[in-house]
From TrEMBL:
The chain crosses the membrane at residues 14-39. InterPro entries: AB_hydrolase_1, AB_hydrolase_4_CS, AB_hydrolase_4_sf, AB_hydrolase_fold, ABHD4. The lineage of its organism: Eukaryota, Metazoa, Chordata, Craniata, Vertebrata. The active site is at residues 209, 335, 364. Keywords: Hydrolase, Lipid metabolism, Membrane, Phospholipid metabolism, Serine esterase, Signal-anchor, Transmembrane, Transmembrane helix. One of its GO terms (biological process) is phosphatidylcholine metabolic process. It catalyses: 1-hexadecanoyl-2-(5-oxopentanoyl)-sn-glycero-3-phosphocholine + H2O = 5-oxopentanoate + 1-hexadecanoyl-sn-glycero-3-phosphocholine + H(+); 1-tetradecanoyl-2-(4Z,7Z,10Z,13Z,16Z,19Z-docosahexaenoyl)-sn-glycero-3-phosphocholine + H2O = 2-(4Z,7Z,10Z,13Z,16Z,19Z-docosahexaenoyl)-sn-glycero-3-phosphocholine + tetradecanoate + H(+); 1-hexadecanoyl-2-glutaroyl-sn-glycero-3-phosphocholine + H2O = glutarate + 1-hexadecanoyl-sn-glycero-3-phosphocholine + H(+); 1-octadecanoyl-2-hexanoyl-sn-glycero-3-phosphocholine + H2O = hexanoate + 1-octadecanoyl-sn-glycero-3-phosphocholine + H(+). It is a single-pass type II membrane protein. Belongs to the AB hydrolase superfamily. AB hydrolase 4 family. GO terms for cellular component: membrane. GO terms for molecular function: acetylesterase activity; monoacylglycerol lipase activity; phospholipase A1 activity; phospholipase A2 activity. This is Phospholipase ABHD3.
Length: 401
């Protein structure tokens, strides 16, 4: 009995690590993966800026733009980063104060304020620096990426206010109108209201995905009228035609497009009672892609002759040249929502107020880093450093020409 068990143990050892072959294979694979990761995955981002002054400001005040970005080594692929981020990143607790404001058409807009009255560095609430945050397509103030930006702002002593698009955060639609990337009327109402409310406090803005597109479109439309100190935009889609084409490729349609379409439809269905007075909601509910949803609903609601006209107007790439305030844009080269061949590289080079930071990996609002990316992401660090630089050294950006 003893001899048999001894032989069996030896056989198991030989089977698994006979002559150390199994161990060698594991070690060899690990070494090869580490080499591949360090050579091909971990890279410094590319910084493109239209003017030398803004370029030097970013290199000096935001060291993150010059540092190698090390994506989480077990999930650096674009789609994996995009899909995992909402599940692996922590959701910090934030206690908001809600405010409903009325738009000129009688609709209501929900703002969530984080006042940060505990701020040690800015105890005077009348002059406390404030960041306006714009979530993505169907996002609200409860998205993990918004909560992380609020947390970063809290640590710096700043106040935040989140602009929730109409009908997404639990409030009723009072008029048959929602929102889109091209229409900036609600954003203008919100910015004017915030500036009136805290007229002595410096204000900047940060937009994510569609929120970033709306913000960039607003800056391009208003030009020198904009009174924001600075703007940072994450994972914006620059050319909507290219974004939708990318999301209609079979795998991305399966992973992202169908899900987002159903989220948009759920939002419409929630407000069916008021919306069906003007729109064919049953027809909208049969849409299979974002493009079909926009053809049947969004472009119709905002009065465009065709969906192509809407997509052209919604694409911020055409408005970059008119931006007059310091704007930093972060995109990942592997973002399937915003393909890199449509990044506004040439337009950015022509405008001294704009800078584009491109990471090799990061996906769409992913930018996960560290072994277990629960807390801060690369995007959070860009937000923190740029926001601090604008509020504390922004005077050096007063004349970027």
């Amino acid at each position: 009995q003893h001899d048999l068990s001894h032989d069996f143990k030896n056989q198991v050892k030989v089977g698994l690590f006979g002559s150390g072959v199994g161990l060698s294979v594991v070690l060899g694979f690990s070494a090869a993966y580490a080499c591949y990761y360090l050579i091909s995955v971990a890279k410094k981002p590319i910084l493109i800026a239209g003017g030398k002054k803004f370029h030097q400001f970013l290199r000096g005040k935001c060291p993150v733009v010059s540092e190698t970005y090390y994506p989480t080594f077990w999930c650096w692929e674009s789609r994996v980063q995009t899909l995992l981020r909402p599940f692996v990143t922590a959701k910090p607790w934030v206690n908001y104060r809600n405010e409903l404001i009325t738009a000129p058409d009688g609709g209501q807009i929900s703002l969530d304020w984080f006042d940060n009255d505990e701020s040690a560095s800015h105890p005077d609430q009348s002059t406390r620096p404030t960041v306006l945050l714009l979530p993505g397509l169907t996002g609200t103030s409860r998205e993990s990426y918004i909560l992380h930006m609020v947390q970063q702002s809290r640590d710096l002593g700043y106040r935040c206010v989140v602009f929730n698009n109409r009908g997404v955060s639990g409030e009723k639609l009072l008029t048959p109108r929602t929102y889109c990337a091209a229409n900036t009327e609600d954003l203008e109402v919100v910015i004017e209201h915030v500036q009136r409310t805290i007229d002595k406090a410096p204000l900047m803005a940060a937009g994510v995905s569609m929120g970033g597109m709306m913000l960039a479109n607003y800056l391009g439309r208003k030009g020198s009228e904009v009174r924001l100190k600075g703007v940072v935009v994450f994972s914006a889609g620059w050319d909507v035609f290219e974004c939708t084409a990318s999301l209609e490729k079979p795998l991305d349609r399966f992973l992202f497009n169908s899900y987002l379409t159903s989220c948009l439809q759920a939002s419409v269905d929630r407000h069916r009672t008021i919306l069906e007075k003007k729109y064919d909601i049953d027809h909208v509910m049969k849409a299979k892609t974002i493009r079909e949803f926009d053809e049947r609903f969004t472009s119709v609601m905002f009065g465009y002759p065709s969906n192509d006209d809407y997509y052209r107007d919604a694409s911020p790439i055409h408005k970059i040249k008119s931006v007059q305030v310091p704007m930093l844009c972060l995109n990942a080269a592997d973002d399937v929502f915003s393909p890199n061949h449509a990044f506004p590289v040439e337009a950015v080079k022509q405008n001294p107020n704009v800078a584009l930071l491109i990471t090799c990996h990061g996906g769409h609002i992913g930018f996960l880093e560290g072994l277990w990316p629960r807390q801060s992401t690369y995007m959070d660090r860009v937000f923190r450093q740029f926001t601090k630089a604008v509020f504390e050294n922004g005077s050096s950006l007063d004349d970027l020409h």
